[in-house]
Each structure stands twice: as C-alpha cells, then as structure tokens.
C-alpha cells in the first residue's frame, strides 16, 4: 500500500468527523448550531472518504475523476456549512448576513461546475508529488483555490474579532474554533499543492484534530450527566 501514513490520517479524519458529527446532532437535534456543525462534519467525512478512495484504489481515469468530483463537493460543503455555523454560533447572523449569502452563492456556483461541468474543473488524472495518480486541474481550479482561501481568511477574521470582544467560557470556545480552523483548513489547503505546485500535502496529517477540537471545546462541556 502506497502512502500508508497519508491514508491513515484520512481514515482518522473520516472516523472522527462522522462519529463526532453524529454525537453532536444526537445531543440536541433541534439546535441550529448543532445542525450546522453536524453538516460541516459530514462534509469533512465526505471529503476525506472520497480522497482516501481516490488515493487507495487502483482506479481508471473515469473513476478517478468521479472521486475527484465527490471530494471537491465535500470540500465545498465544508465551506458553506462552516461559514453559516460561525454566523449562527456567534449570534452574528445579521452582522455577517451579506458575506454568508455571498459564500452560499459562490459555493453553489462551484458545486454546479463540479457536478455538471467537471471537464473544466478536473481534466484528468496524472502522477504528482509522489502519488501514482492525482488531479490534473482545469481552468476553474485556480479560482476554486482562491475561493477556498478567501473564505478561510474571512472565517479567521470573524473569529479573531469575536475572540478579542469575548471573555470567560465564550472566549475559550472561540479559541477552540480558531485552533481548529488553523489546523483543519490550513491542513486541507495543502491538498491543493500536488495539483498546483507538485508539493506533497503534508498538512493532511493533523486534520483529524479539527473535528475533535471544536466538538470538545464547544459541546462536551455542555453535557450534564445526571445520576
């Protein structure tokens, strides 16, 4: 098996995302915050699961392109749901309404391109960065890369702003989300590197910490066990 540590990191990301997402929604299925965090974790699970299959399977080009579509659908859903999650959790929906709507619009545009026009997003499968097969990107891949970066930076800006305005347990919760953002999204960002720069996606090894940090920091302290 090629790249066992990379595949192990993806497997851990899938497992933790799926399990902690289900745990979160079971805690309070009617909470909008819990719903959006659950959807975010399912996006992470979809992305990591599809990327695992993409690297692990000895697939032909047609299957490889299909799996590339699925993993990018997952990464787009992560952006949509995480940004909406921030606005709801921080109780700042009205303040950030315009940027949330713009995030949703751009995300939907990319979803349409990925699903219905894959040839301008992923042209094929080629060897890259030590992998036997990786994405040969199309004309819309660079715009997608910048879309990802922009909304990661916007998320970080919102969290930093709210962090310095908060105190107590709220400040600690925002700190957990900030740490998760740095670990998860910067780690995820390196998975663009093989296609764009022929560089190994080293940040993948720590992404599994992303769902753990947020779920622990935000939800576990709220669990009250009664005997």
Topology of helices and strands:
Blueprint lengths: L3 H24 L4 H25 L4 H29 L7 H20 L5 E7 L2 E7 L3 H25 L2 H22 L3 H5 L11 H10 L9
Antiparallel strand pairs: 1-2
Structure commentary:
The chain has 227 residues and is mostly helical. It is built from eight helices and two strands; from the N terminus they run H-H-H-H-E-E-H-H-H-H. Helix 1 runs parallel beside helix 8 and helix 6 (168-189) packs antiparallel against helix 8.
CATH topology (level 3) name? Rhopdopsin 7-helix transmembrane proteins
What is the H-and-E element order? Answer: HHHHEEHHHH
Give the strand order, joined by hyphens, for the main sheet.
1-2
Count the E strands: 2
- Relevant CATH superfamily: Rhodopsin 7-helix transmembrane proteins
Q: Helix count, per DSSP?
A: 8
Shape: globular
How large is the share of residues in beta strands?
Answer: 5-15%
Count of the domains = 1
- Which stretches are low in confidence, meaning pLDDT under 50 for 5 or more residues running? 223-227
Radius of gyration: 18 Å
CATH class: Mainly Alpha
Please state the average pLDDT score. 90
Class based on secondary structure composition and strand pairing? mainly alpha
Which architecture name does CATH use? Up-down Bundle
Report the end-to-end length measured between terminal Cα atoms. 48 Å
Biggest β-sheet, characterized? 2 strands, antiparallel
**Roughly how much helix do the residues carry, as a percent range?**
over 70%
């Amino acid at each position: 098996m090629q790249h066992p540590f990379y595949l192990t990191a993806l497997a851990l990301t899938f497992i933790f995302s799926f399990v902690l997402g289900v745990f979160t929604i079971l805690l309070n299925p009617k909470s909008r915050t819990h719903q959006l965090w659950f959807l975010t974790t399912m996006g992470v699970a979809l992305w990591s699961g599809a990327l695992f299959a993409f690297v692990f399977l000895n697939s032909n080009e047609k299957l490889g392109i299909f799996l590339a579509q699925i993993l990018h659908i997952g990464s787009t859903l992560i952006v949509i749901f995480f940004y909406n999650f921030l606005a709801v959790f921080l109780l700042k929906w009205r303040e950030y309404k315009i940027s949330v709507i713009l995030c949703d619009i751009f995300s939907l545009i990319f979803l349409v391109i990925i699903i219905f026009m894959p040839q301008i997003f992923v042209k094929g499968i080629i060897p890259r960065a030590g992998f036997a097969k990786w994405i040969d990107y199309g004309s819309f891949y660079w715009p997608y890369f910048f879309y990802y970066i922009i909304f990661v930076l916007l998320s970080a800006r919102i969290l930093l702003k709210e962090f310095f305005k908060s105190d107590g347990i709220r400040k600690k919760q925002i700190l957990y989300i900030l740490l998760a953002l740095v670990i998860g999204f910067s780690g995820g960002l390196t998975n663009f590197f093989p296609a764009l720069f022929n560089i190994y996606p080293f940040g993948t090894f720590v992404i599994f910490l992303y769902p753990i940090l947020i779920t622990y920091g935000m939800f576990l302290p709220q669990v009250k066990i009664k005997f």
